[in-house]
Amino acid sequence: MSSAPHPSRVSPQVPSQVSPPEFAVTASGPHAVTGVEVIALPVLTGADGPLLGPGAADVGDLLGVDLLAVLEADRATGKVGQVTALPVPLGSPQDADLRQVLLVGLGEASATDFRRAGATLARAVQDRSVVATTIPAVEPSVGLEPFVVGAVLGSFGFAWRSAPPEHVPVQRVVLAELDDADRPAVARAVAVGGASWRARTLASLPSNLKNPPWLAEHAASLAADAGLEVRVWDEAELAAGGFGGIVGVGQASATPPRLIRLDYTPRKASRRTPTVVLVGKGITFDTGGLSIKPGEAMVNMKRDMTGGGVVMSVLAALADVGCPVRVVGLVPAAENAVGGNALRPGDVLRHYGGRTTEVTNTDAEGRLVMADAIAYAVAELSPAAVVDVATLTGAIKVALGQQVGGLFASSDALAATLLASGERSGEPLWRFPLAAAYEEKIASRVADADNAGGGPGAITAALFLQHFTGGVPWAHLDIASVGDAPADGYEWSKGPTGFGARLLLDWLGSDDPLAGLAR
Ligand code: BES
Ligand code: MN
Ligand code: ZN
């Protein structure tokens, strides 16, 4: 008998996507760089009006233009987000290719201002070939990394059309008036921006392509490129290994579940080098299961693997940020589908390690798969800390809106560290309590816990997970609030955000990520 694949199993081919710009560093001023289509100069908000930053005097002289007068004519103040464009139709005496000078607001030149100026510039120079800029030269120690991250993420795009993309990112950004000593910071920022970019792309892919086996194959190819070890459990190995949560959630799907493990070992590791475990929710589509979601609530559920995509992207970038600790990334991947073999309300699951859960709502599936992975981490990997990232509850979105992520932590030191990384990297978190008073909400009459005890929904979900952490310092990022951006805004593009990649790389790329934590 012939075995033609069922049409729904024929994966479409993703067209090639736009890439982030390349970055170059030069000590020269922007007026002296040739082959540049756009020169972008910073404008700061001064007490007596806007101030032009480095390189502006030379550019003004070269073109014979009073750039301050240009700002005044445009009523520009130097506020972040402002761009004043000066056309240069015939090029400059130095560079026949020059077409435009952009005066870009940098506000008070805080790290956030630099990130936003980078993203603003990226949007202003899309479809251009080369832009030279002195914006980060205003204060490289504060601004270089955030500027580059902003310029990468402001360039992000994803499309699956028959025609080529309407707009493409600028090909090259020349960072002028910097030193060779600034190159490592650029490389680091490119890695951080690239990790967020990758996480956004993964969350953007539709679920007719991105099923659990596809995600596992993608992880294996990432691992090969980044020098990580990889192990994947298939559905039979998951059943044999006792991963009842992952198996249960995945059992109704035509594409079976997987558990993905990626291991990063720092170059200078010794036997005493501690291990951090990152766990990312990898639900490749969430219908809700038999407790099915209404249509509108299902529309964006291809991105219910955002946490898993963030963990994979972070693992792939750890070497580039010089992470000094071992990191294991775990992604429990399953499609929460409906079918004759679906989990039913009332079913009881046995998780890795033996704890049982009564499934009163099949739409509270994230915690079921996360529990197995956390229990495995604690039992097998002797972690110094476990951090999980999950689009876990609609309740966190009600509480925080779409600009702040939810943080729960069993360790004040870990919470403080992650809050600081969130602030620094532009992915802010707000800490919620693991209030023991609500434990009774997740009590079950038949099992160790009920998976959907009710409100407060984000807190009861976190309490459910905490039972699997075995007292290891643990933090839980509920990113259901911030997984999707409602509109373009600075470094955010409408749609999947990859929220968490920047803050985790800020943390794990620091000199001592476990400082202050009991070991
Ligand atoms: N994936 C959803 C959470 C979600 C909601 C993510 C909105 C992004 C945007 C999760 O699996 C879910 O369905 N949670 C339920 C839990 C409830 C049934 C206890 C929820 O939050 O409604
Ligand atoms: Mn759900
Ligand atoms: Zn979900």
TrEMBL record:
Region (Disordered): 1-23
GO cellular component, one term: cytoplasm
Cofactor: how and how many bound: Binds 2 manganese ions per subunit.
Subcellular location per the Swiss-Prot or TrEMBL entry: Cytoplasm
Main location: cytoplasm
Reactions that this protein is recorded to catalyse: Release of an N-terminal amino acid, preferentially leucine, but not glutamic or aspartic acids; Release of an N-terminal amino acid, Xaa-|-Yaa-, in which Xaa is preferably Leu, but may be other amino acids including Pro although not Arg or Lys, and Yaa may be Pro. Amino acid amides and methyl esters are also readily hydrolyzed, but rates on arylamides are exceedingly low
Bilayer-crossing regions: none
GO biological processes: proteolysis
EC class: hydrolase
Lineage top rank: taxon: Bacteria
Residue ranges of domain Cytosol aminopeptidase in the record: 361-368
Function: Presumably involved in the processing and regular turnover of intracellular proteins. Catalyzes the removal of unsubstituted N-terminal amino acids from various peptides.
Protein name listed in UniProt: Probable cytosol aminopeptidase
Gene source species: Nocardioides anomalus
